[in-house]
Amino acid sequence: MLGVGHGGECSSRYILLVSTLRAWFDHPKAHAPAWYRPTDDSVVAHALRLMHDDPARPWTVAALAAEVGVSRPGPTRGFTRHVGEPPMTRPATWRVALAADLLRDTDATLSSIAHRVGYSTTFAFKRRRGITPTQHRAVAARARG
Q: For residues 41 and 78, is the Cβ–Cβ distance under 8 A?
């Protein structure tokens, strides 16, 4: 799933991915999410790589299918089975995970983080995490000491 030779921007995303996975697996009851487990479905693997490499892109099934080089139903076949969520839910999940890491690990402004991950408001973060980005950053700061 992780590529090489994609430049600095992609490298920082991979670092965020590794940080996210480490934080996930630090929890005693954590199990590998479906998308983490290897898949032999090349269409699903390619679609995931595209969405993870460009989280700010406004993904649609049609755009994803065109990028992967298959018909529209192509990305949806097996995606939920392999990843654990539909293809158009994945970008939102990934954006919130990236935003959470950036809020925890950087001093970047909320606006710059939202822009980087593809959000124009903080509503999606709060809907998925149950707290605002500002609250998440404060909780993370307190946890660091």
A: yes
Tokens of residue 30, six digits: 């954590």
pLDDT tens readout for residues 94-138? 999 999 999 999 999 999 999 999 987 888 899 989 999 999 999
